[in-house]
Write a structure and sequence with these properties.
Largest sheet of chain B: 2 strands, antiparallel
Radius of gyration of chain A: 25 Å
Strand order of the largest sheet of chain A: 18-19-20-15-21-22-23
Number of strands of chain B: 2
Strand content of chain A: 25-35%
CATH topology of chain B: ABC transporter involved in vitamin B12 uptake, BtuC
Radius of gyration of chain B: 20 Å
Oligomer: heterotrimer
Distance between the termini of chain B: 37 Å
Structural class of chain B: mainly alpha
Helix content of chain A: 25-40%
Number of strands of chain A: 23
Largest sheet of chain A: 7 strands, mixed
Number of helices of chain B: 14
CATH class of the largest domain in chain A: Alpha Beta
CATH superfamily of the largest domain in chain A: P-loop containing nucleotide triphosphate hydrolases
Strand order of the largest sheet of chain B: 1-2
Chains: A alpha/beta, B mainly alpha, C alpha/beta
CATH architecture of the largest domain in chain A: 3-Layer(aba) Sandwich
Largest interface: B-C, 61 and 60 residues
Structural class of chain A: alpha/beta
Strand content of chain B: under 5%
Chain lengths: 507, 326, 339
């Protein structure tokens, strides 16, 4: 059994953890949940020896212990798997598994023995089998995760700590990881994991601890838990309305019309999206849902068919043309594709407006109207509820949720009739999620057309007026409001019985 | 009375904030004070003229280098362009008599530099060859071209007006530094107050995000390198008038000084950071260090060591600094 | 959490500004100690400003300057650009010397026109300037002391031409064409060769005083033109590279290498026959002569010194390198040379 007593971790004046005490029972899956900054990852790191406590103790099998570093924790039987995978991309799976622990004879590596040992582990655990001979950079993220787990297992731990094991996986890849966790538990391991997703907590956890501002706000067996209880423990308030209600429905006029439009990765499709409509786009990674968004945003050239925007023919060579015509694409990975991390919130927010031809922020000779920019940005920062609200701060200083608010806030400044959002709430904490859904609803209420691409079906069901589903590059189903269920969407996007209840096959 | 006190406090906190935000300025001021104490002649009109004239060419190059470095690029060809445009300009001046020749020389030099910059820009923006390699290539090509054009020999026969421009001053300011100042002010405004300047920062910070925001990324990269080429040509002309001759190899290693100046001023080789103003502080810092150490009798061997330490130290200290974001 | 970070970085800024300032002040303080001495007392200071601070020849010349200055009780200083092409830096150094109010300047101008304005300014400020090795344009701007470069290069050209019986092709690896000496040596060599109708000019390359460059250029020339049987390396660095090229191509008996100046490497090549002859100047004497000129001006012995003071030169060959006269000449370059 492992646990902590009166544990505190302070970073300067901030209490990341404040007198926390929990017990984790052997042979169970224990979930740690909470918003960003709640201290859940810090707690996990203390258990795994990656963070020294400021006060309090870690207790292992009734004895107080102290782990000055992860190696010492591993020696005591506690293995920690980080959120960012810590593999060497150019080395093979085998080499990664045994790195630092290579069995050797006279100092020479015993490759064959090493590989047999790994294969045995894979078999014993009934794990999915990635090709361990390849450099891990050639494996998928999910397969890399398996390598990471193997690496941990070969050090023979009793307790395995996962820091957000599914954060970087697609929905299709999450299932196997969850089943690995279950299998580990059934083999007698103790599993502790940090998660953002309630669904997976409900699926695998035996017990949950919820943290808020460094304190435990909920610690109970899953048998006594229901969804709202967790959310209110995370948020510290009752969750009256997670998904927003709409003030207005879609209008009659179409905004975006497609006729047999196709591109690399998407087969011809025809579709009308109305003004004020939120169109949900479901589909697993590689299904074409993302390609669809990129085609609309001008990142992926159309190979044929016709597109009309507000009645005018449109085919975009590049994002600049799409923007000019009225379609803005908000990419999935905001840190890599959307943000200027070292530049200020203000510059980030005003950028599309500054870039726009005939911009109201640009005067004669290309000179910027800096005063007006300041005013508009202040307004947008208030409106989007970005915290901290100082527009001079670099975007890097913001949390994931607030960074996303900045990215979305751009399109309040530079008003485009059609917004394509690719997984806008990915890696965003629960509180910010609710605010982002509210913003999306507000945009639609004011007559904007929203194309909401998501790998997270519950949010599509909660926010979209209509949901289309992609599989293998084809638009396979359309669900009107109220028709979609999580099961039906999953079935449609995963293949198998595509025509589940409520699903409407495309001609 | 009360307001006066608060005003003074405001001034003091303002000064502290300025020095904090601009460590280079603080160090520069301290160095100037220290050198003036160590060598009273440091602040004499003659010496200030010498100092300013010695940094005029690097200052102009640094303006261009600032733009390039903010886009996360680098222009290694600047020194070679200085040499090439110097001999091209000086050669063309000999083709026509009097002021007609001078104008012709200036035009030829500027066109040459701009063309090299355009080439750098197009290759960097439209091929997958990184700027470092592109400009390393043009550095070699243009260095060779300058030697080829002149057969290795310097050009001495320059119109008298050229050298008198290069050696005369307005008050404490040599003519050539006035050119640099004007260009630096224009560069500062262009970078800080125009859409183009904003694009430069955005592209350097995240080219993908810039493209998704509707900016013509490649075109702006071409413009930035072209600007650097143009300014290198101006540098070539200034150097020619200052040394009263055009040597094909005259600009050798100047690009290293301009990169050092930008970096000392806080420009980041990863892009998105830097201003023309702070690069000029970097230029002055280099100039003051060189001139001051000369004056107090530090050997030229030690000088390069000191400069190297300052470059590394500046970037090291800068990595801790909380910046004011653009 | 972010508030905490801010606090930390703020206090860091303060201490770093202080540290940085500390470093700066340290440099200045150290410099001031050495500088203060230079300005104290009525002792006269002579500053030597060659075109490069890493050329052995100039370091030997400075040895001559120092030795002679010591005799008269003068102080000396040495400043030079690290890269000789940085003529702008050399200009700045002359101006700085004027600001420092030195009493005399010995100069090796990299460019005859570029250094003219600062030299004029120095003389207007009452600081006499002596040009050594290379001079300014117009020639009569200052007192100039050097070997007659043209004549010296001609002497070695004659020696080479005679060795090949006046028949063949010759190439020149010059160190630069910016200095008057670099051009005079080329002109002298070519003019002397012109007297042999059988000798054809095969081309000139620049080494920038880098032996590796000279080696590459010479190799390329010899490989592309097998008719070349004479190569002139116009200074020590150039001759060194040329000899190396001949050695690597095994052309010792086919190609006559002649040089200018000497260092230990060059002397060894002369001994082993890869270099057949080299014209030796007298760097130490050059430095001494320049100081003598300044001394005469300081003491009022002369108001208008001669415009040109020629220095003797000596051709050392693979046959005469052990003569006492040759050993004397080599000692101008290598102080402890014994033969």
């Amino acid at each position: 059994m492992i646990g902590v007593r009166d544990l505190s971790v302070r970073f300067g004046p901030i209490n990341a953890l404040d007198s926390v005490g929990i017990d984790i029972r052997p042979g169970t899956i224990h979930a740690l949940a909470g918003e960003n900054g709640s201290g859940k990852s810090t707690l996990l790191k203390v258990l795994g020896g990656a963070q020294a406590p400021s006060a309090g103790t870690v207790v292992l099998d009734g004895q107080p212990v102290s782990f000055p570093d992860p190696a010492r924790a591993a020696a005591a039987g506690v293995g920690l798997i980080f959120q960012e995978l810590s593999l060497f991309p150019h080395l093979s799976g085998y080499s990664n598994i045994f790195i630092g622990h290579e069995p050797s004879r006279l100092g020479f590596l015993q490759f064959k023995q090493l590989n047999r040992q790994a294969d045995k582990l894979v078999e014993e655990m009934g794990l999915p089998r990635p090709d361990l001979r390849l450099p891990v950079s050639e494996l998928s993220v999910a397969e890399q995760q398996v390598v990471e787990i193997l690496k941990c297992l070969c050090r023979q731990p009793k307790i395995i700590l996962f820091d957000e094991p599914t954060a970087s996986l697609t929905q299709r890849e999450i299932k196997p990881v969850l089943s690995i966790m279950k299998r580990l538990r059934d083999q007698g391991y103790t599993v502790v994991f940090v998660s953002h997703y309630l669904e997976e907590v409900f699926e695998v956890a035996d017990r949950i601890t919820v943290l808020r501002d460094g304190k435990v706000t909920l610690d109970d067996d899953m048998a006594h838990i229901y969804r709202e209880k967790i959310l209110s423990a995370m948020l510290g308030r009752a969750l009256d309305e997670f998904y927003p209600s709409r003030r207005a429905g879609p209008l009659a006029e179409p905004c975006l019309e497609l006729e047999n439009a196709h591109a690399d990765g998407i087969e011809p499709l025809s579709l009308k999206v109305r003004k004020g409509e939120i169109l949900g786009v479901a589909g697993a990674v590689g299904s074409g849902s993302r390609a669809f968004g990129e085609m609309l945003g001008g990142l992926r050239p159309m190979r044929g068919g016709a597109m009309r925007l507000e009645g005018r023919a449109a085919a975009f060579r590049n994002p600049a043309r799409a923007l000019q015509a009225g379609v803005a694409y908000v990419p999935e990975d905001r840190r890599v594709d959307a943000l200027l991390l070292d530049l200020s919130i203000a510059t980030n927010m005003s950028l599309p407006l500054v870039a726009a031809p005939k911009s109201r922020l640009v005067g004669a000779g290309g000179f910027l109207r800096l005063g007006q920019e300041r005013m508009l940005v202040d307004e947008a920062v208030q409106h989007s509820n970005v915290k901290p609200s100082n527009p001079r701060l670099p975007a890097r200083a913001l949390s994931g949720g607030n960074q996303q608010k900045v990215v979305l806030g751009r399109w309040f400044l530079h008003d485009r009739p059609c917004l394509v959002l690719n997984n806008p709430t990915k890696g965003v904490d629960v509180g910010s999620k609710a605010e982002i859904y509210r913003q999306i609803a507000d945009l639609a209420d004011s007559g904007h057309t929203i194309i909401l691409i998501s790998n997270y079906n519950p949010e599509l069901i909660g926010t979209a007026d209509r949901i289309i589903a992609f599989r293998e590059g084809r638009l396979v189903a359309t669900f009107e409001k109220g028709e979609a269920t999580e099961d039906a969407l999953l079935a449609t996007t995963m293949g198998g019985d595509g025509s589940a209840s409520g699903a409407q096959e495309m001609p | 009375m009360n307001t006066q006190v608060s005003e003074r406090a405001g001034f003091r906190s303002g000064l502290i904030a300025f020095l904090n935000s601009s460590l280079v300025a603080a160090v520069l001021i301290l160095l100037v004070i220290a050198f003036s104490l160590a060598a009273p002649a440091f602040m004499s009109t003659n010496n200030v003229q010498t100092l300013l004239a010695s940094v005029a060419v690097i200052a102009v190059l640094s303006v261009g280098q600032t733009f390039v470095i903010i886009t996360a690029g680098i222009d290694l060809s600047q020194g070679a362009v200085v040499g090439l445009t110097g001999v091209m300009g000086a050669g063309a001046m000999g083709l026509a008599p009097g002021s007609g020749g001078i104008v012709l020389g200036i035009v030829v030099a500027l066109i040459t530099g701009t063309a090299v910059g355009l080439l750098n820009g197009v290759l960097t923006a439209y091929t997958r060859v990184p700027a470092f390699i592109v400009t390393l290539g043009t550095l070699s090509i243009m260095g060779g071209a300058a030697l080829l054009v002149t057969g290795g020999e310097p050009i001495y026969m320059l119109p008298a007006a050229v050298n008198s421009f290069g050696t005369n001053s307005v008050g404490v300011f040599p003519n050539i530094i006035l050119v640099s100042i004007v260009l630096a002010v224009m560069g500062h405004v262009l970078l800080g107050r125009t859409r183009f300047g904003r694009s430069v920062y955005a592209i350097g910070s995240n080219p993908r995000a810039a493209a998704l925001s509707g900016l013509p990324v490649r075109r702006n990269i071409v413009t930035v390198f072209t600007l650097s080429g143009f300014l290198s040509a101006v540098g070539g002309l200034l150097l020619t008038s200052y040394v009263n001759s055009a040597l094909p190899t005259a600009g050798q290693n100047y690009e290293l000084d301009s990169i050092a100046a930008v970096v000392i001023g806080g420009g980041s080789l990863f892009g998105g950071q830097g201003t023309v103003w702070s690069s000029m502080l970097g230029v002055l810092l280099i100039g003051v260090l060189n001139n001051g150490t000369d004056l107090v009798g530090v050997s030229s061997y030690s000088q390069t060591i000191i400069l190297g330490c300052v470059v590394i130290g500046a970037v090291f200290v800068d990595s801790f600094r909380k910046r004011v974001a653009v | 959490m972010s508030g905490d970070k801010n606090d930390k970085s703020k206090s860091k800024i303060g201490s770093q500004a202080f540290c940085r300032a500390g470093v700066g002040l340290g440099i200045v303080a150290a410099a001031a100690l050495s500088g203060a001495a230079a300005q104290a007392g009525p002792q006269k200071t002579i500053e030597f400003i060659p075109s490069s601070n890493a050329t052995p020849y100039f370091l030997r010349e400075y040895a001559g300057v120092k030795a002679e200055a010591k005799k008269f009780g003068y102080k000396t200083a040495f400043q030079a650009p690290s890269v000789s092409v940085h003529v702008g830096k050399q200009i700045g150094m002359v101006y700085t010397a004027i600001t420092r109010k030195v009493d005399g300047i010995i100069l090796v101008p990299y460019s005859p026109t570029a250094l003219l304005p600062p030299v004029k300014k120095a003389m207007a400020a009452g600081i006499p300037v002596v040009a050594t090795d290379s001079t300014l344009t117009p020639m009569d701007a200052v007192t100039f002391t050097a070997v007659p470069n043209k004549k010296a290069a001609g002497a070695v050209a004659n020696y080479a031409a005679k060795m090949v019986d006046g028949k063949g092709e010759y190439a020149i690896i010059d160190y630069n064409l910016s200095t008057t000496s670099g051009r005079a040596r080329r002109d002298g060599f070519k003019e002397a060769m012109a007297k042999y109708p059988g000798m054809k000019f095969a081309g000139l390359r620049i080494s920038h005083s880098i032996p590796q460059t000279a080696l590459n250029e010479a190799t390329a020339m010899l490989e592309s033109n097998p008719k070349i049987n004479v190569i002139f390396g116009a200074n020590d660095r150039s001759a060194l590279g040329v000899a190396e090229a001949v050695k690597r191509l095994h052309l010792k008996n086919k190609v006559v290498v002649v040089g200018f100046d000497a260092d230990l490497g060059e002397i060894n090549y002369i001994k082993s026959g890869y270099i057949k002859a080299s014209v030796l100047q007298s760097p130490v004497t050059m430095g001494k002569t320049a100081v003598d000129v300044l001394h005469d001006i300081f003491t009022g012995k002369t108001k208008t010194p001669a415009k040109y003071l020629p220095l003797p030169f000596h051709v050392v060959t693979s046959k005469n390198y052990n003569d006492p006269k040759s050993i004397d000449a080599i000692q101008q370059y290598i102080a402890d040379y014994k033969g």
